[in-house]
Design goal:
PX Domain, Substrate Binding Domain Of Dnak, Chain:A, Domain 2, 2 domains, 5-stranded antiparallel sheet, two-stranded antiparallel ribbon, 7 strands, 56% helix, PX domain-containing protein, phosphatidylinositol-3-phosphate binding, PX_dom_sf, AH/BAR_dom_sf, PX_dom
Length: 492
């Protein structure tokens, strides 16, 4: 990742005058409600609607509308296997109570200001049971990148994008949601860098030290959260990674002018059908979300237009009532005009709440797709490294075969007196490449397994959230139309 201009000056934003509510979540349970994956239908009972709402659906309807369930299809892996959770998923969750209070603007020596967010955490895992720290927006991005480096293949909760920082309430809310999701994950909640984020009073120095030690690239962040950085230390271990970094990295041989002119960099082609299918689905979903965003903007505009029409209709009826053609008629028309005003207010409130709710769900899925794309990019990067080292290994093998040595010359236990000095050097290089190849292919296979587990868990989570969102949508529409009818019924 190349460093971009993300600094405190870029992320400064104004804070609203009204005092916002504290965002918090008490995560004190570790149970996961299992979903019924055997059924491909979602019944109304599964939405957990209140009795008064269920009664509305139990009333007789037209004969051709007897079906009382909504069909939802879910794609299963082609092999039909149910992916198991990580072993640590069975461990009990640590309880975290995380709050973010109203941020403050801190002036710098240069006269500029940056925003600090007070983060308060209560958990038995900490020595003092409770911690209070202040964090900048860049610190939340550091946490995302560091967790991304520590857990390849895991879908890491995203911080809010830079574009939303001017909206204080939304930024604070998304930051809390990010920390809540991390704290509710049985693996991420035990991560040392997550604990460092929640507890350290010397966070800037310690976080930079962690970035340097792990070579995570967390401080080489850029705007695109789906782009990734693979740490050579995490991949190869400190000793081999040090040698690789001295030579410019794994891709360095193909970036030199002469060699890159003579030989193009090896290509990586994904062979796992499950991952290929999920990548295709991801691109389709991203396109669909873009279209949904356009539709939401269109709906918002049409609702505003409809509100204006209702207001204009109310004004017209008010004007007619003032003509006083008859006392009784004027009274009815006036009451009807007042009813239209109330209906306009009710409609605008409903539209505003629905638009906000739909936007939040849209942004939630958009963030999930960005994080999913990041894990696919990790897999591709490891695959590229695998192809590069494999190509180098073949070259070194061919080179070794041309040197004067016996048939066992490419084995690690070859006797020193059977090799020439040059052959010894080449043989050692071959052994190093072979060990490096084995390390990379192991990590490449492991990230493939992790991605499949994460995708499976995400699908279940999305279905659960869809049930909840659909339930809320039904309730809100029922309440709106009931209130609307009540307003109009008052007009005699």
């Amino acid at each position: 990742m190349e460093k971009q201009g993300i600094d405190d000056e870029t992320i400064n934003h104004s804070i609203g005058e009204s005092e916002p509510k504290v965002m918090k979540q008490n995560l004190n349970h570790g149970s996961k409600r299992p979903l019924n994956t055997d059924a491909n239908t979602l019944h109304l009972e599964s939405l957990h609607l209140d009795e008064k709402y269920l009664k509305l659906f139990s009333k007789p309807r037209f004969k051709r509308e007897r079906n009382t369930h909504i069909s939802i299809t879910r794609s299963e892996p082609k092999d039909g296997s149910a992916l198991n959770n990580l072993a640590s998923d069975d461990e009990p969750l640590i309880s975290f109570d995380i709050q973010i209070h109203e941020p403050t603007r801190i002036p710098t020596d240069l006269g500029e200001k940056y925003v600090q967010y007070p983060v308060i955490t209560k958990s038995a895992v900490f020595e003092n049971q409770s911690t209070y720290v202040t964090r900048r927006y860049l610190d939340f991005r550091w946490l995302y990148r560091q967790l991304q480096n520590n857990h390849w293949g895991k879908i890491i909760p995203l911080p809010p994008p830079i574009e939303k920082l001017k909206n204080y309430f939304q930024t604070q809310n998304e930051m809390v949601l990010m920390l809540q999701k991390i704290a509710h994950d049985p693996i991420l909640q035990r991560d040392q860098d997550f604990h460092l984020f929640l507890t350290s009073d010397n966070f800037e120095n310690k976080s930079r030290l962690r970035d340097k030690i792990t070579r995570s690239g967390a401080y080489l962040d850029n705007h695109d959260l789906s782009e990734i950085h693979i740490s050579e230390i995490e991949l190869l271990g400190y000793e081999d990674a040090s040698n690789v970094l001295k030579n410019g990295g794994i891709e360095a041989p193909y970036h030199q002018n002469f060699i890159s002119f003579m030989n193009s960099i090896p290509k990586y082609t994904e062979q796992d059908t499950f991952i290929l299918e999920q990548e295709k689905k991801l691109e389709i979903l991203r396109w669909q979300l873009t279209e949904i965003s356009k539709t939401l903007d269109l709906i918002k505009g049409q609702r505003l237009e409809l509100g204006s029409v209702v207001k204009e209709s109310s004004n017209i009826f008010n004007s007619i009532s003032k003509l006083e053609l008859s006392k009784q008629g004027s009274t009815v028309i006036t009451e009807f005009a007042d009813g239209l005003k109330k209906e306009k207010i009710l409609f605008e409130k409903f539209s505003q709440n629905e638009t906000m709710r739909l936007n939040l769900n849209f942004q939630k899925y958009q963030s999930l797709l960005i994080s999913m794309k990041a894990v696919f990019n990790q897999r591709k990067k490891l695959g590229l490294y695998l192809a590069i080292v494999e190509d180098e290994l073949k070259r070194k093998e061919n080179e070794l075969k041309k040197l004067p040595l016996n048939n066992s010359g490419m084995e690690e236990n070859v006797l020193a007196n059977t090799l020439t000095d040059k052959a010894k050097v080449v043989n050692n290089e071959y052994i190093t490449l072979k060990n490096r190849y084995n390390k990379i292919i192991e990590k490449w296979q492991l990230i493939g397994k992790t991605i499949k587990e994460e995708i499976s868990d995400s699908e279940q989570g999305i279905l659960k959230e869809f049930e909840s969102a659909l339930s809320t949508l039904i309730k809100n529409h029922i309440d709106y139309y009931k209130n609307d009818i009540e307003v109009l019924q008052r007009v005699k």
